[in-house]
Amino acid sequence: MSAAARVLREAARSRTAYLFILPQVLGFLVFGIYPLIGTIRLSFTNWGGLGRMAYIGWSNYAALWGDAVFWRSFSNTVLYASYYVVPCLIVSLGVALLLNLRIAGMPFFRGAYYIPTVTSLVVAAFIWNWMFDFNVGLFNQYLAKIGISPLPWLLSPSMALPSLAFMSVWKNAGYTILIYLAALQNIPDEYVESARLDGASSWRTIRHITIPLLNHTTLLVVVMLTIWAFQMFVQPYVMTQGGPAYATTSLVYYLYQQGFSTFKMGYASAIAVVLTVTVLMVSIVQNRLLTRMTTDV
Amino acid sequence: MSDARGVLSRRTSNRAAAYLTLSAIAAAVMLPFVAMVIHSLRPETVPPYPFEWIPKQVTLASYVHLFKNTMILRWTANSLLIAGGVALLQVVTCSLAAYAFARKRFPGKDVIFWVLMLQVILPYQVTLIPLFVLLTRWHLTNSYFAFWLPFGTNVFGTFLLTQAMKTIPSEFDEAARIDGCSDFGIYWRVLMPMLRPSLIVLAVFAFIFQWNDFLYPLIMTHSNTMRTLQVGLAALRPQGGVLIGPELGILMAGATYAFVPTMILYMALQQHIVTGLVAGGLKG
Which of A109, A84, A140 is nearest to B28 (CA)? Predict the structure, then answer.
């Protein structure tokens, strides 16, 4: 009997198993893979949402290459990620280390820090929109109290993106704290204690024992936060409309504008492909680094 | 002796410093929410600036306005139906698939599993346009099906439940099989009850994700009656307008209203959420 026939017979016997995975696989094919191929296909057309579409080769990509707003939105997204990822890591590591001192009421603190993460971005955007407001905002109110003139948090092109990154630290640190805390609790006590017995100070123990042991976790968190940064949409949509002067136009916001405001679906699809490739690259780099770390140890 | 006491008191003061720091950060994290609630209760006659942490008068006028002049109840119902439906569907489809991946041997199993994992990496934003086209062609935009179908399965959920199911000893299956249980019987009567904590984790995450999501419902719904709570609220924000006048109070009332359910859900299920996040985060 041929190998093919054997596989077929085995497959027939596994009918039940296939039935069990059928909904998931169908969902994946119809709403995952098909649209992914669709994005790539559309990115080579000039489709305007209605009517005929024509294949125009690499024209959309060529246009992207020369589109200053696209580059701005790409660099904004990368900058935004770099503005918030590092502060988020530092703050969360510090807080997680403190929480790991077997603090009573740890669940309360952990809960309090995590609440912004379960809050919707629209709610967060409303609150921070007010806090950042030039005229009636909370930050400028307190700055005025200590005699500093009001800052254009969201109104100046150089401040708007860092302001949104600041908000994102508040929004996402709860998640990072939780992950770090879990990782810290996995570190056997002996590691830290033996370093202590050798006379290392707390700071040196943290610096040379704890932080290297967390490398793995740090990498995962960085990738997670970076991928979230690449999904940035609500803040520019609700708070800044991508401005001032495109300073907060993110890739997804630009994609939305091109695809759903001006209905340049082909062009927007090309942006989506760039987004896909970027996110995939981040994941591949993460995988490489993870493998290298594991073989190093 | 005195040395030991010195170490002890240093430890106590370290601990006190840790508490102080943690409390200060907790306060800083929570204060924006407190301000949100205070703003939502501010009477129109009180100017929004300077902001006072202890309000002299409070009123529910902003909430009344919200319920009288907007479709907020309808939006809430939409959000509940969408998020609840998606959560329920994911629990079913993901656990079904997990049973096959954790318990059955079949040709192509590993390949299928790893191809599915592709979707974990890709955010939905990248497939938004063709998905919109597809659902438009099927006349499903502006309906609950635009959410239930694409989000009714979830590869990450399948992964989570497969891992969870693998930790249940297969002796349970064997015993049930000897008693004459079919595959579906084992899945439904033996494994599903034991999987409950993981099913709750998945349901909560699916619910909160859908409840909070913005871009997808913004694109897939277009009539005021089909808006989700988040999209409806965002539409109340005057585009680029200055936040003075009554709209600030109304926005904050809406924010408070949308915030409370996730807050309650989180408080009630904190332990499950923490376990789920750690499982998902640490394994990648």
Answer: A109
